[in-house]
Known about the structure:
12 strands, two-stranded antiparallel sheet, D-Maltodextrin-Binding Protein, domain 2, ten-stranded mixed beta sheet
Amino acid sequence: MRVWADLAGALALALLGLTLTAEVGRAQTSDLVSKTALRVCADPANSPMSNRDGTGYENALAELIGDKLGLPVTYTWYPMATGFIRNTLKAKKCDLVVGYAQGHELVLNTNHYLTSAFVLIVPEDGPLAGVEGLADDRLKGLKLGVIAGSPPATHMARNGLIGKAKAYHLVVDRRHENPAIDMLDDLKSGEIDGAVIWGPIGGPLVKSDYPGMTVIPLLNETLPPKMFYRITMGVRNGEKVWQRKLNSLIRRHQDEIDALLAEAGVPLISDLGDKVIEVTQ
């Protein structure tokens, strides 16, 4: 009888183990992530990153990810402003934000796939083409454009450049207003002498629509706030399996991602923010 009792106990433990294994399996695969499509949360008018017409480089990156996963790409569109994450990712209408700053608590970040910096954009044949930092004396007394409240504004104030600066709105609905394009249009017309802007926005715009301009990554600012940032993909908090899957994809296809970004005109820099990375295309 003792033998049968031991066998019965062992069988019960085995069944319990199978049950727990099944529960773990379900926990890993029962995320609300779609198994039939790569559902992307995106701004419909966030040129040059995402657009409803699919021409943004984040659209191209989404297509690359979808291709590697064997899934078609679908979108939930919402302006990249207050309530974006709440009304898209957290509302479970989509499963991935292609571009999100590292360390933001609203999402679970993947490993970063892009490091870039704020840049100075000036005419390539003008007297400012050799400037490498906001402390350069050649900028004194000039009128620079800057996004209000962005990190470069602090450096400009420290270097006596903010008094004559022209500020552009930070948070807008880009279906109706595009500060980056407004700034570059003002630079083209001579309204401002230089544009200080986030590189992944300014670089692609210059490449596509503003020939004759040069893009200078601002890597020589030693005091805070920092001028370079790492960009990740964002998923819902708690969806660790999905995060790890994307981390693996980024790691295995980083060369393709770099080539895509470089082709778009995004300035790529080292993870330490101290040098420009050249990508062979």
